Amino acid sequence: MSEQYIQIAIPVPMRQLFTYQVPQALQTPPISVGERVQVPFGARQVIGVVIKVQSTCDIPPQKIKSVANRLHDDFHVNPTMVDFLQLCANYYHHPIGDVFQQALPKLLRDVKKSTLTPPMVWHCYPFIDDTVIAGASPTSQRDVANEDDDKHTEKLTQIIKIQNKAPKQYALLQVLNNREGISWPELRVLGYSKAQLNALVKKELVFEKEQKAHAFQWKTETLNEQNKHALSTEQALIVATITQSLSSFGCHLIDGVTGSGKTEVYLQVMEGVLAQNKQVLVLVPEIGLTPQTLMRFEQRFKVPICLHHSALNDKERLDTWLNAQQGSAAIVIGTRSAIFTPLQKLGLIIIDEEHDGSLKQQDTFRYHARDIAILRASKLNIPIVLGTATPSFESLQNALSGKYKYHKLEKRAGNSKKSPIKLIDMAQQQVEFGLSGSLKHEIKQTLARGEQVLLFLNRRGYAPAINCKECHWIANCMRCDKPYTLHQKQQLLICHHCTDQHRIPPQCPSCGSVRIAPIGQGTEQLEQRIQEIFPEASIVRIDRDSTRKKGELAKLLQEVSDKKHQILVGTQMLAKGHHFPDVTLVGVLTVDGALFSFDFRAAEQMAQLLIQVSGRAGRASKPGQVLLQTQFPEHPLLQDLVHNGYHHFARQALAERKQALLPPFSFQALFRAEANYPSYPNKFLQVLADTHCEGCEFAGPVPAAMEKKAGKFRYHLIIQAKSRKTLHKALWQLLANTPQNPWQGKVRWNLDIDPIDLNW
Ligand code: ADP
Ligand code: ZN
Ligand code: ZN
Prior knowledge:
Elements (H helix, E strand, L loop, with lengths): L4 E5 L8 E4 L14 E6 L2 E11 L10 E2 L2 E2 L8 H14 L3 H8 L16 E5 L5 H5 L3 H9 L3 H16 L1 H12 L5 H6 L4 H9 L3 E5 L22 H12 L5 E7 L5 H14 L3 E5 L7 H10 L4 E4 L5 H13 L4 E4 L11 E7 L16 H12 L2 E6 L4 H8 L4 E5 L11 E5 L5 E2 L2 E2 H12 L3 E5 L8 E4 L7 E2 L4 E2 L1 E3 L4 E3 L6 E3 L12 E4 L3 H11 L5 E4 L9 H10 L5 E4 L12 E6 L13 H13 L10 E6 L5 H24 L7 E9 L3 H11 L6 E14 L2 E10 L2 H14 L10 E6 L7
The protein binds adenosine-5'-diphosphate (ADP) and zinc ion (2 copies).
């Protein structure tokens, strides 16, 4: 036997791999890339992933440690994924161990849980065949009884009882009968409960068993043609174009307003991919907000679908991972981090709402799921589809320049009309509780017609601040120097920046006055005020506070679609994905803050939000309208957006960015540093800024927009270049020098490649 060494990724915050020796006893069977091994690291044992296997090593033998154990199970990371994660670590200049840590399910990295169990799925008992389920009726009961099968008769009687008494259990039985093996998380998304499942277990009608690992196979009955639409010419052209190029990389931007039929296009493109027995990965902004979209996937294809999102527990996450890697899952749908799901035969990636900010992770490993999805597709030589009504400026520019294939859906599918946006000049209006007379009038009219209203205010809580009416003292968070938000229901002041909480002071701590009152308005207050104005209407508030409880969001959305409520009040959660067919009036209380932001992306984000919120109105055949309240009706950005639409606005803004050499016409990285004293981060970043980097420009260091947060002083330094290559070369140089930076031990710092939010 010869010497053998491996380089592995270990979950530690260092930008390097670690080398270990493989003892002779562990050398057979041959060790391979992607395997998980247990190794000593300091005083701990950790699990690492093998990145390289080699027979020599230039570290002195006394310094090198040995692998403690190899984990012999089915849970290897496939080599393609290993390559991909390495590319990601490189691109984001992020510690490779941490990239693996974030990309892999937690159980794969847990030393104590090194024996892992395969996924379990639910089945119906085999004797419950289609005829029984479909036609559970007294007649068929008699038919089967003739077969002299007591057990069968008994089950059948039970099923009939269920059909009459527990329709939801019966529906669950049908679902299980329709497909071979469905996991609990998938059933949960389909709206079934553990209680319903347990009831069927008790009646011995369903059971759980280990999922067999077999790659998904397309069958004729896989496709459910029932809800399939005959495509419009526009749609058909897109489906044909993408379908013709399934075997090579290409990035397709589908630019179409909400309701123009993008999802239908996804579904019909997927059909071709699944028919080749390949898998599809779909990224969506927020699973909880798109139950209707999920249902459409489930209804169209009778295939195993895995969902990947933050509400999964560790075991469920691992199951999804394994199902995808072994090819048993045909479709994986998930939020941002689903981009790291290994798929044995990935044939297509779809990113719905590609402009959405939630695709970018804003802490630790700061990746953009869309960008690395494109990287992944190009490495696999498969197509990727980006869909949105409001393309990000990056994607739009790539589409306009011909780098991406640009597909437009100009018309709304069916016969629904696009809602016009009307500006309301607040200076010309009687305003009560932040509501203009015109908006109030329209709300009244809409309610009278029996239709629903959506009021958008992107600020949760009761009021963004409280102050003393005598001495003008403001309750500020000491750790952030920003006002506390008042949460009336909880009777608390909460800092939205650091989550610090305080009781509401009975008196002004500065002058002793009891005249302390809220300033400004949040959704909680808006809800209360609207109720006062429209006492007859039922009002529902949808924001992060009102939907904290598990299942609450789904419940509220269901109540809205059941028309239990007439007015919806909410934050940007309401702008995402969800369709409210009976909402015919959208009132936007204000977006003025974004008109004067220092962040060059603020206008882009405001425009996207506004158009997305507007898209919620008038989905069905009823026409809708959007009223936007503003103090600045003459502002050129608003004028352009309202009169000429998003695309004109975007092109205009792109032209300005080109002139100013801002992204996407240049490339940026942002160094952030923070410490207990302002001088440290400033000096740390100054050392970087003083480095000569060929072809790069620095902006800063400057105090962050929020200079103080959670007691730390924060500084920013932006580095910018005309090409990615130049930028990344400079970054390698700067990072290599960092250990010599005299201030580096005194600050916490991080690096954000292609930053999208300069406020953080
Ligand atoms: P988007 O994803 O762009 O919001 P959808 O695909 O959800 O649009 O389509 C909007 C509505 O129009 C849906 O109810 C869908 O079923 C319907 N639809 C989509 N394509 C067609 C079509 N070709 N003919 C008729 N209805 C369609
Ligand atoms: Zn006072
Ligand atoms: Zn704070």
